[in-house]
């Protein structure tokens, strides 16, 4: 039998533990039975005795099996996201031209709670404070003295963070170059975030990002 519509207690409500227990049970039943295959957003704050319970922007996804499992890998209700999060990697072997800031394409997201990333550009879904992190690994190449590999983070086309790995003397053998940058940034809804690479090797030629495993990473987390 279908559950009646769930009405969350008002924000700031002080609850007897029995009421709190009953409401949590009804929430579980509502997610696992009433909403198979759908999404709902719950944004409330509760007080139980002297303890505060808050959950904001929690998005639940429920399947028709309704086994009540919350978390990745569950066959029933699963917690899709508590916040705005992007985690992406790049195994495309992207080619970075010589001495030119170049927007990196070919990212593949493993987590994108707001469905806001197209493999090149992340569009901020809601305004707030964001932590943005980028790491790249350039393939083995022989660098001249002063040669470098670099990475950049840009908002709306303007660079806001950069990282550089530069050699002081000419390399005697080919080597990888790892670069990293990060920034804490206040963004507005609709702002765009892109990643860029730049490198100066032993000649006016391109160099590629390493195409294996976990070495190129792009992460965005809304923290406030």
Keywords:
mainly beta; 224 residues; Jelly Rolls; single chain; elongated; 1 helix
Description:
The protein is mainly beta. It folds into 2 domains: 13-81, no CATH class; 85-222, Jelly Rolls (Sandwich). The chain has one helix at residues 17-34, and strands at 13-14, 39-48, 51-61, 78-81, 85-89, 95-96, 102-103, 108-112, 122-123, 128-141, 148-155, 158-166, 175-187, 192-200, 207-208, 217-222. Strands 8-5-16-10-13 form a 5-stranded antiparallel beta sheet, with no helix packed on it. Strands 7, 9, 11, 12 and 14 form a 5-stranded antiparallel beta sheet that branches.
Oligomerization: single chain
Order of helices and strands: EHEEEEEEEEEEEEEEE
Q: Approximately how much beta-strand content do the residues carry?
A: over 45%
Which CATH architecture of the largest domain? Sandwich
Within the CATH hierarchy, at the fold level, what is the topology of the largest domain?
Jelly Rolls
Low-confidence parts lasting 5 or more residues at pLDDT below 50? 30-82
Structural class: mainly beta
Q: Find the count of extended strands (DSSP E, 2+ residues).
A: 16
Summarize this, please?
The chain has about 220 residues and is mainly beta. The chain is built from 1 helix and 16 strands.
Secondary structure topology:
Blueprint: E1 13-14, H1 17-34, E2 39-48, E3 51-61, E4 78-81, E5 85-89, E6 95-96, E7 102-103, E8 108-112, E9 122-123, E10 128-141, E11 148-155, E12 158-166, E13 175-187, E14 192-200, E15 207-208, E16 217-222
Parallel strand pairs: 1-2
Antiparallel strand pairs: 2-3, 3-4, 5-8, 5-16, 6-15, 7-14, 9-14, 10-13, 10-16, 11-12, 11-14
């Amino acid at each position: 039998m279908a559950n009646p519509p769930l009405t969350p207690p008002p924000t700031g409500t002080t609850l007897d533990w029995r009421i709190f227990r009953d409401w949590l049970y009804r929430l579980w039943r509502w997610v696992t039975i009433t909403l198979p295959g759908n999404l709902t957003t719950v944004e409330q704050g509760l007080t139980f005795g002297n303890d505060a319970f808050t959950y904001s922007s929690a998005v639940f996804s429920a399947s028709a099996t309704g086994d009540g499992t919350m978390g990745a890998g569950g066959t029933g209700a699963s917690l899709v996201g508590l916040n705005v999060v992007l985690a992406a990697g790049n195994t495309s072997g992207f080619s970075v031209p010589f001495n030119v800031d170049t927007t990196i394409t070919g990212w593949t997201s493993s987590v994108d709670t707001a469905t806001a990333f197209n493999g090149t550009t992340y569009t901020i879904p809601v305004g707030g404070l964001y932590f943005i992190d980028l790491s790249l690994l350039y393939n083995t190449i022989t660098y001249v003295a002063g040669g470098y590999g670099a990475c950049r983070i840009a908002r709306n086309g303007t660079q806001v963070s950069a990282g550089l790995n530069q050699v002081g003397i000419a390399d005697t053998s080919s080597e990888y170059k790892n670069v990293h940058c990060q920034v804490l940034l206040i963004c507005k809804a609709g702002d765009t975030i892109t990643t860029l690479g730049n490198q100066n090797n032993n000649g006016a030629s391109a160099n590629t990002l390493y195409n294996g495993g976990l070495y190129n990473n792009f992460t965005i987390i809304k923290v406030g």
